[in-house]
């Protein structure tokens, strides 16, 4: 490569790196904005009057999303093992809940969990109770227990699709449980749909 070609190559490389850097900076700004909006939406439901506390809680949520993303991106890039990622998620989950609990009541912590999982727990619980009005107290308790377990796992998922897949798995478990308890879910669903149309 002669001197002139070397200079042209270096100029093109510099321009490419600068464009890449600008794109990366813009992507980071967009990502930060998305996380801020997502966290604000959750924190706004908590009725926190103290602005300093509001900002601390919002920061905790934003940081949690960032840490979760880093772990899941590492899994995609095959950095470390699945076991390493799983143990990092478990530790991150535990630390996050400790930090939230230091700032919030248990009801507010639950509201954060629900916000991070699109309120699927409450919606699904209500749907089962509306669909099967004859559910017994122990059955309602079991359904809620599994949905709470699903929510804990879904909080750490890498995407909304993965969160919904986790809840889907638990809904399957609930449906099997109810079928074993003698409920005809197709019949219950048809009757529920008929009630909704009325």
Automatic annotation (TrEMBL):
Question: InterPro entries annotated for this entry?
Answer: DUF3826 (IPR024284)
UniProt KW keywords: Signal
Leader sequence segment = 1-21
Highest taxon listed in the record's lineage: Bacteria
Q: Which Pfam families match?
A: DUF3826
* Protein name according to UniProt: DUF3826 domain-containing protein
Organism listed in the record: Dyadobacter linearis
């Amino acid at each position: 490569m002669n001197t002139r070609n070397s200079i042209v190559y270096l100029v093109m490389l510099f321009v490419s790196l600068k464009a890449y850097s600008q794109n990366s900076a813009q992507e980071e700004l967009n990502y930060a904005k998305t996380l801020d909006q997502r966290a604000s939406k959750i924190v706004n439901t908590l009725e926190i009057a103290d602005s300093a506390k509001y900002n601390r809680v919002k920061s905790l949520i934003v940081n949690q999303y960032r840490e979760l993303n880093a772990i899941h991106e590492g899994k995609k890039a095959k950095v470390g093992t699945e076991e390493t990622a799983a143990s990092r998620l478990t530790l991150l989950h535990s630390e996050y809940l400790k930090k939230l609990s230091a700032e919030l009541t248990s009801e507010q912590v639950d509201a954060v969990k629900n916000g991070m999982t699109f309120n699927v727990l409450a919606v699904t619980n209500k749907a089962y109770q509306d669909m099967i009005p004859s559910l017994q107290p122990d059955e309602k308790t079991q359904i809620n227990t599994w949905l709470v377990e699903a929510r804990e796992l879904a909080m750490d998922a890498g995407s909304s699709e993965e969160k919904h897949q986790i809840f889907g798995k638990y809904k399957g478990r609930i449906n099997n449980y109810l079928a074993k308890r003698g409920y005809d879910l197709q019949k219950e669903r048809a009757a529920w749909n008929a009630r909704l149309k009325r």
